From TrEMBL:
Binding residue positions for heme: 462
Transport keyword on record: no
Record's keyword terms, sorted: Heme, Iron, Membrane, Metal-binding, Monooxygenase, Oxidoreductase, Transmembrane, Transmembrane helix
GO biological process, one term: lipid metabolic process
SUPFAM superfamilies attached to this UniProt entry: Cytochrome P450
Designated name of the protein: Cytochrome P450
Matching InterPro entries: Cyt_P450, Cyt_P450_CS, Cyt_P450_E_grp-I, Cyt_P450_sf
Keyword set includes Oxidoreductase: yes
Leader sequence residues: none
Amino acid sequence: MTSSDVISLHRTPYPSHNTTMDTLTLVTLLVAAILSIFFLHFIKKNTSPWILLRFLRNFYRMHDNQAELLEQNNGTILVKRSWFGGKDMLLTSDPANVRHILSTNFSNYPKGAEFRKQFEFFGDSVFTFDFEEWNHHRNAVRSFFSHRLFQQFAEKIVQDCIQIELTSALDQISNNQVVVDLEDLLRRYIYYSACCISTGYKPRFIGLALSEDKLLKATDDACDAITARYLVPESIWKLQRRFGLGKERRLREAEKTMDKIISNYMSMKQEEMSKGEIRNDEEDFSLLKGYTIGNEIFEQLDHKVIKDSTFGLIFAIEDTTSSSLSRFFWLLTKNPKVEAKIRQELEKVRPLTEAKSSSFFSDVEVGKMVYLQAALLETLRLFPPASMVSKTAAKPDTLPSGHHVSQNTMVIISAYAMGRMSMIWGPDCLEFKPERWIMEDGRIRHEPPHKFSAFGAGPRICPGKDVGLKVLETFAATIIYNYHVQVVEDRVGAPKNTFILHLDHGLMVRLIKRWT
Ligand code: HEM
């Protein structure tokens, strides 16, 4: 591969963990890691100091380290960070605990003040609220997502994005035989859909060979900084924030960028309203329109809640679905038999002889494709894009596993570890096997959410699950049917060290058209 045949989609916002570490964080973690290698030998195994040192030594592979530790400890570990001046942290992947925390004893496990501090970038919205405030917004969001007009609006946007925007870009890539980062490409087009769904406006064109998108870059910088806040002591990140250093400086810039871009969309909507040019519901049933003019679902709210909710929805759609889809294509390249079976299923619905330019599969068509759905669920089991869910114990409690949780303990449910536990999925838990999702009668097996927790569980379960799965199915079906995705750099495919599981080095591919 020469540099001349690579389309230069922006690579900088998604660098590897090494390059994203700023100096102060890196030095702190490296010193701690070196000391931990030495001290790990002298400390009793599985005690809190040992686990803390192991976290430090493995900070560059946090997801796999958590999964290994949880597998070795029956799915739960309590880390007494209060001995070292932090908050105690309980990490669990035990389905009985997950059901207790997310469902049965839900009222005792709000997101909490600690979460809001770490995720301040996400501001005031359903994602960060607790108790009454959360309940109120949650009801509105749920009614909105289940509204017939919203579903039609979202489906039309995704269809136009694939048929009009994406397929012409993919044809261009395959005709010119260039190499692209598929993860970056999918992010741009799913972001395009997410922005239309959330605001009712198309973002500036995000096609090939353009420079980075500012809002995507801001989101990545924010996710990086938020993850670092889990890893380094609060005093260090607060110091960095105060003096505008490293990731915290980039987080501040990200806040300004997000504020500017979303506020601009809000002004456009206000202007439409003041000129009496509000589009009808078929053309615009976006969240921002609902919040701006108020309707039977949304009351009018203050600027900050509207801004944060609008951005939150773009993030909820884009980051989760684009990272799952890239991971899905990465898994297919390692499992060609699965890809062949998906093709057979697609060609049963539409033989290749009937293929025509920009062949798109509708919601109804993908609804019939059980094997494709199973392969996507299997992807989400092994690589849940929202890798962990964080809560805080309001009162002391005892979990079904017998672990005592004191007040203000941070409780983290690792969805990544849950997908890799042999006690949940059996001895072949690390294998990619879509068949495990298909019942003997040929229908999809529905696993309870406290076992398959990619979408969370209980009252806070993801309200966009159906929309998210449809986005995955329609993008995946269109690409697999029309192109063969050939990976040109066989990388390990490690997950990026942030709470959203992007591929650490992207996915460099060529696309070969399957029919002419
Ligand atoms: C593959 C796709 C997706 C995955 C894996 C996913 C996963 C999740 C998870 C794990 C949560 C957190 C649950 C908790 O805090 O307990 C969540 C929350 C949420 N998701 Fe999704 N999501 C996806 C797509 C979407 C889409 C497409 C939308 C919107 C159309 C959406 C909207 C939301 C909202 C509004 C919340 C906040 C719910 C609350 O806190 O009450 N998600 N999602």
